Amino acid sequence: MKTFKIIICILIFLTTSSVHADNLFVMGWDGAGMNNLIPLLKQGRLPNLKSLIDAGACLTHIENISTTCTMPNWTEAFTGLTYDQTGVLNNIQIETVSYPHTIVKSIQEQGHTIGWFTSKDYLGDDLSISALAPIANHADSFSKRKPDGYMGDNYITFLTQKTISFIQSNPHYFVFLHVDPDYYGHQYGENSDRYLHEFERADEALGKILQYINRTDTKIVVLSDHGFDEGGIEHYDAPDNFLVSDLPIKSFYCRKIGGEQKTSGTMRDVANTILTYYGIDYSTKIPTLRGKSLIPTP
User: Fold this and answer.
1) Across 16-25, 47-56, 150-159, 235-244, least confident range
2) For the segment 86-122, what is each residue's pLDDT rounded down to a tens digit?
3) Beta bridge partners of residue 272, listed in sequence order
4) Contact assessment for residue 220 and residue 163, using Cβ atoms and an 8 Å cutoff
């Protein structure tokens, strides 16, 4: 009888101490503006993203707090901290964010494996270039665009396969896949066929990955950091970020593909929204996370 009670106590301990939260796949479309996204959705050129929206996923504009360039915005998304808190003002003045100040560490502590797959060194493992290098260095699996030199257009195939392999091997995960329309915008211009084709390639990669995701225990976030100046090859003033997600986002943030939207979230709200999804209390974090969650809380 005593042995039986001990076994019961052990089982109760294991049950209560094990942590389970749903998985999350985040896909970053770098430099993909909402002003370009909406026409492509209407034209049926992004069928996988459109299927998410048609099935009830929220499409919302996400406002920039800082400049419209890569590093400050992805740093805000994965820390919830603004540039004056992190020192990340642009792509050149880089202050490395400590790993405990990222949302990824809290998710990892819940027992989730971390996959981090990026097409830019700005989000890679080099501390002298990337403010988010501690995430890459602590991830359970990390790959970047140039493992053995320049990969050209094949980068997206390489990173997509890395993401699929990671998802297949890990039952409890948080994964970030970063793709790079931004590169083609700088090379060919905001309205160029090649820039817009990278949206289509990103959508194709999304479709391939969704085939390997169990949608009953995994949510999806597709997010951009900025757009491009109209007709230009730069993004000095291009704050047309977007977010598409099947997270339970408050309805007033969401819009139809061609509809109006009066209320937007911000890049720093992305972190709080993800933490809310994982049941992590962001209100106690230091430094203070100044954003809000887009998910309703009790």
Assistant:
1) 16-25
2) 999 898 877 899 999 999 999 999 999 999 999 999 9
3) none
4) no
State the angle between helix axes of 193-210 and 34-42 in degrees (0 to 180), rounded to the nearest 10.
70
The full set of domains in the chain, from first to last, is 22-284 (3.40.720.10)
Q: Angle, nearest 10°, between helix axes 193-210 and 155-169? A: 20
Average pLDDT over residues 254-263: 80
Place of tokens 């949510």: 219
User: Token pair for residue 37?
Assistant: 């996204």
Residue 191: count of CB within 10 angstroms of its CB: 13
Beta bridge mates, 27: 177, 222
Percent composition of the chain: helix, strand, coil (DSSP 3-state, to 5): 45, 15, 45
Would you say 48 and 206 are in contact if contact means Cβ atoms under 8 Å apart? yes
pTM, entire model: 0.91
